[in-house]
Specification:
7-stranded antiparallel sheet, Serine Threonine Protein Phosphatase 5, Tetratricopeptide repeat, alpha+beta, 415 residues, 4 domains, 14 strands
């Protein structure tokens, strides 16, 4: 294809127009073997323009691997993710774009729209303000500013009285006993006899955190949990439904005494790798006894769990420490959190995709790691003395992993 015709196709794509099949095939042919990301990215955008985001996504992911520092590739990937109704993943990619190009107006404007959708009026205003500081004549940013000024912000809701954790635990135990569910305390967890005859371990801290972040009153919330626990049927033997839910987690040495019968293997830095079944509310360790009926080997479980986790990296957020609490920051602080919030963030540090995301923020140098919070993993550059001291002063939560670690190209090691 001659350069003039090729440039015409590229401009049609940039304008959001849908290409004909012949035009798309011509653009694909021109992109094959072309240096740089421009034409390959145009093909992916052409697919998004045609509503084929699922076909565009693997192309965008391949471009991110091949051109890890290209901002336009990140913006294109975010566009495809938004088309697939994955705003959380898109937001993480947009933050990566900002790490590559601080103040990028396109990323800021999309982040403002996402914040507005979530009702985060103040955050949306901050994004728009920053975009207009970069370009006061940006028409899209000015329209967003007008829209934000026209939005009536509702008053904050009255705080809901919340039970403390001991009260929550007592209410849950009482409700389980009333329902005839056999259970007993084991440290910070509950051992619950499932209808299959197996014993499941329920993490009370995770249940309490979900209650605290929700809107339900204590009584209805606890009754809902009891209904879920009554309906659990163990792992079963349906491999097709089991394998996609497998995830690895890191636990301290000796943890098998708290998760008796759970499948595990030695991990890095003296830690142990256990396997859980993904669940929004309950922490369910995979019993070793489930492998035979499911026709799985320990190696298969390990490989599938890590592959699943690799496909779901977490956002990397700047944080500050405020009187022992981890608080999200809007700007660079020297400390970052791998903040998936699902309990797998420590293990994510061992995945390739998560390491690449960390490199975008902290660079290639070794990192100091704090795994004392299950809901996130904290890191800083090893060369940043004050940040390392802050992590050293931050003790572990009762269910966290004590001590500090080092993460570099060779993996995770204990200090």
């Amino acid at each position: 294809m001659d350069p003039i015709s090729l440039e015409s196709l590229r401009r049609k794509v940039e304008a959001g127009e849908t290409l004909s099949d012949a035009e798309l095939d011509a653009l694909r042919s021109a992109a094959q073997g072309a240096p740089g990301p421009t034409l390959r990215l145009a093909v992916a955008h052409a697919l998004v323009n045609a509503g084929a985001e699922r076909e565009a996504l693997p192309l965008m992911e391949a471009l991110r691997r091949d051109f890890p520092r290209d901002v336009q590739v990140r913006l294109g990937l975010a566009r495809a993710l938004l088309g697939l109704e994955r705003p959380g993943d898109a937001e993480a990619v947009l933050r990566e774009a900002l790490a590559l190009n601080p103040g990028d107006p396109e990323a800021l404007k999309v982040l403002a729209v996402l914040a507005l959708r979530r009702g985060e009026h103040g955050r949306a205003q901050a994004y728009v303000k920053e975009a207009l500081e970069r370009d006061p004549f940006d028409e899209e940013a000015r329209l967003l500013k007008e829209e934000l000024e026209a939005v009536e912000v509702p008053p904050p809701p009255s705080p809901r009285p919340q039970a403390l954790r001991p009260e929550f635990t007592a209410a849950l135990l009482a409700a389980l006993h009333r329902a005839g569910v056999a259970c007993r305390r084991q440290g910070s967890a509950l051992l619950v006899k499932l209808v299959s005859g197996e014993v499941g371990r329920v993490d009370v801290a995770s249940l309490y955190a979900a209650y605290r972040d929700g809107a339900q009153e204590l009584g209805p919330y606890v009754e809902g949990l009891v209904g879920q626990l009554q309906g659990l049927s163990g792992t079963g033997v349906d491999v097709r439904s089991l394998e996609p839910r497998l995830r690895p987690v890191l636990r301290p040495a000796g943890f098998e005494t708290q998760a008796m019968g759970a499948l595990h293997r030695p991990g890095p830095a003296g830690l142990e790798v256990f396997y859980v079944l993904e669940d929004a509310e309950l922490l369910r360790y995979l019993p070793a006894a489930a492998l035979g009926p499911a026709g799985l080997s320990a190696d298969t479980v390990d490989a599938r769990a890590w592959r699943n986790l690799e496909a779901h990296p977490a956002p990397v957020r700047p944080v500050v420490l405020d009187e022992g609490q981890v608080v999200l920051a809007e700007t660079f602080s020297g400390l970052w959190a791998v903040a998936g919030g699902d309990g797998y963030d420590g293990a994510r540090l061992l995945t390739r995709e998560q390491r690449e995301r960390l490199v975008l923020h902290a660079g290639e140098e070794p990192l100091r790691v704090h795994l004392g919070r299950r809901e996130l993993a904290l890191v800083c550059r090893e060369s940043d003395g004050p940040a390392c001291d802050s992590l050293a002063r931050l003790g572990p939560a009762p269910d966290g992993i004590p001590g500090l670690f080092r993460l570099d190209a060779s993996g995770l090691s204990r200090l």
